[in-house]
Fold:
Amino acid sequence: MARTNSDQLHGTLDMLVLKSLESGPLHGYAIALRLERLSKDVLSVEEGSLYPALYRMEARGWLTSEWALTDTGRRARFYRLTRAGRAQLAAETRSWTRLTAAVQGVLNA
Amino acid sequence: MARTNSDQLHGTLDMLVLKSLESGPLHGYAIALRLERLSKDVLSVEEGSLYPALYRMEARGWLTSEWALTDTGRRARFYRLTRAGRAQLAAETRSWTRLTAAVQGVLNA
DNA sequence: CGTGTACGCCTAGACAAACTAAGGGTTAGA
DNA sequence: TCTAACCCTTAGTTTGTCTAGGCGTACACG
Structure:
């Protein structure tokens, strides 16, 4: 009913997830933790957003996944960036930079 | 059907519209032109997004509106920022700055 | 005079993305 | 034993933006 979190990540979640996989495969939970930590708790990644995003991106060929064990011995699904995923990350990053610069330009006017 | 423009403005349109009214009332068409010009044509404001956004914001008390004549003698609906609208603009600007800084932090990692 | 073009506004419907709010199972430790 | 952290899943809702039309007016130009 009431919205507390207001789609703060709209349009950037894919990019952030792709980015966090750039340096190697991670599982969902780890991706969420990483993003929260890197953003100093400004970004909070809801599971209900994250997992569907992962499935979506895998379906689009940007990621592959497989079950494996974490370093603490738990089963988890690890996601790995594909070549197409890297390209997508680059494209989204360019586009994001361009957009935010434009918005900033308006705000400075 | 196919999406060409991908919701590029998602979440920022309200802020941009409020910002463009900061220096005085404008009508819808003028707001769109202004945003396109200020952003050097990076942002394109679709009428189907803009007008519903204006109605929404008026309903929320951020804007008031009235019919008046443009300097070229046409009838147009002019929107004016309310006190609440100014507060909203300030809040959204703070939040946007915070968010983009966080995203940038992740991208730089 | 007709006709195109820029000016202006309006709206229904589709759609994607993110969210809320559950549920489930596992491991470790108090 | 029981709690908390770890990890995944998904149905359903909400929202905003977009597409794709429609309407009417003023003015310039041939």
